[in-house]
Amino acid sequence: MEHLSFPNESTAYRAARAALLDDEIALRRQIEAVAAKRRALPPGGTMPEDYAFERIGAFQRPEAVMLSDLFGDKPSIILYSFMFGSERDNPCPGCTHLLDAIDGSARHVGQRAPLYIVAKSPIARLEAWAKVRRWPHLVFLSDVDGRYSADYYGDTSRLTDAKRAERGMKPGEDWDETIFNVFRKDGEAIRHVWASELAFAPEDPGQHHRAGDLVDPLWGLLDMTPEGRGTFFPRLNY
User: Fold this and answer.
1) Considering the entire predicted model, what is its pTM?
2) Can you list the pairs that 30-36 forms with residues at least 24 positions away whose Cβ atoms lie under 8 Å?
3) pLDDT tens for residues 153-195?
4) Which residues pair with 42 in a beta bridge?
5) What is d(CA 137, CA 46) in angstroms, rounded to the nearest whole number?
């Protein structure tokens, strides 16, 4: 393979960069191999119920909508659980910075799989925050009764005792959580396809906040720099 050459680089730099490029190629192949395994998963479990949400509908008024109504003419949908429950004064900065980036992609991903942002807050509150952040393309759903969030780990209410201990949670402690869930129509049924369970997996030392890297450009950009991520974490305002 012919390599690039930049002005005044040393032989040692080029040799190390060429070796790193081999690793980057291997990583690219591994990412695609994992994506192929994700697509090849056996059928997931059917939804235990058709969940009710609230969204902004015609004439900019709140309306009830069922999860089964969210597909349109597409076979699959993506739901992202946003940590902005009614008990929070402000939304999660980590979720917010991710949605800052995803808003631009929302107009495109919907051509193949509609994307919805779910939170346990009143729909008016969610829409008001979207206007503050200037998110014109994200579609919000209010999980009014919290049943969807509980069943699909948009909160911690149904974590096992073992998982709670693993995460160092105090007894009776609960909060809303961030997770992607994908659903697909299977005849008359709706099946759960995949969730970003990596968010609930034990972290390697010094590797906090790695679960959403594939859809989060912030960390990819910082990983390009010699300083890396360091201890940086996004804020709502600077």
Assistant:
1) 0.94
2) 31/214
3) 999 999 999 999 988 898 888 999 999 999 999 999 999 999 9
4) none
5) 29
59 in helix, strand or coil?
helix
Query: Is 70 exceeded by the pLDDT of residue 59?
Result: no
CA neighbor of 64 nearest in space, from 55, 73, 72: 55
Q: Residue type at 200? A: F
- If we measure between CA atoms, which residue out of 70, 54, 126, 66 comes closest to residue 95? 126
Spatial separation of the C-alpha atoms in residues 14 and 22, rounded to whole Å:
12
Average pLDDT, the chain: 95
**Tens digits of residue pLDDT in 207-222:** 887 888 989 999 999 9
Write the DSSP symbol of residue 149. Answer: H
Question: What angle in degrees, to the nearest 10, is found between the helix axes of 93-109 and 123-133?
Answer: 80
Q: For the sheet containing 76-81, what is the strand order? A: 62-66, 52-56, 140-142, 115-119, 76-81, 179-186, 189-195
Handedness of CA 21, 211, 102, 47 (dihedral sign): positive
Pairing outcome for strands 140-142 and 115-119: parallel
**Distance between CA atoms of residues 116 and 228, nearest Å:** 31
Tens digit of each residue's pLDDT (9 = 90 or more) over 162-173: 999 988 898 888
**Of 85, 69, 94, 151, the residue nearest 118 (C-alpha):** 85
